[in-house]
Amino acid sequence: MEPTPWILPIIDLRRCTGCGKCEELCPTHAVAVQGGKATIVRPQDCSFCEICESYCPEGAIGRPFTISFAQPEAAAAG
């Protein structure tokens, strides 16, 4: 799998039971259960919504994020 320029949800395979809830609810069908574990099978289709993370009964899916603070406007700095 080629690296993507965007951040994808992280699936903790130790916690994933392969229940299929994420696959069932993913609106873009980016996630599927393969080999008994959830996998992002179509990373280009992932919309980074909260559904897979919110509904995973094992808490095995997380969406990493970075907080970026906006730079002060030039007028405010002056």
Total domain count: 1
So what's the overall shape? elongated
CATH topology: Alpha-Beta Plaits
Structural class: alpha+beta
Helix content: 10-25%
Number of helices, where a helix is a run of at least 4 consecutive DSSP H or I residues: 3
CATH class: Alpha Beta
Biggest sheet: strand arrangement:
1-4
- Radius of gyration, in Å, reads 16 Å
Looking at the overall shape, the CATH architecture is 2-Layer Sandwich
Strand content: 15-25%
Order of helices and strands: EHEEHEH
Largest sheet: 2 strands, antiparallel
Distance between the termini: 48 Å
Low-confidence sequence ranges? none
Q: How many beta-strand segments?
A: 4
On the 0-100 scale, what is the average pLDDT?
A: 88
Question: Care to describe what's here?
Answer:
The protein has helices spanning 21-25, 51-55, 74-77; strands spanning 10-11, 31-34, 37-40, 61-62. The protein has one domain: Alpha-Beta Plaits. It contains three helices and four strands; from the N terminus they run βαββαβα. A hairpin with a 2-residue loop joins β2 and β3 (37-40). The longest helix is centred in the first third of the chain and has 5 residues, at 21-25. The protein is an alpha+beta fold and 78 residues long. A two-stranded antiparallel ribbon has the order 1-4. Helix content is 18%, strand content 15%.
Quick structural gist:
By secondary structure, this protein is an alpha+beta fold. It has three helices and four strands; from the N terminus they run E-H-E-E-H-E-H.
Keywords for this entry:
two-stranded antiparallel ribbon; 3 helices; 78 residues; single chain; Alpha-Beta Plaits; 15% strand; two-stranded antiparallel sheet; alpha+beta; 4 strands; elongated
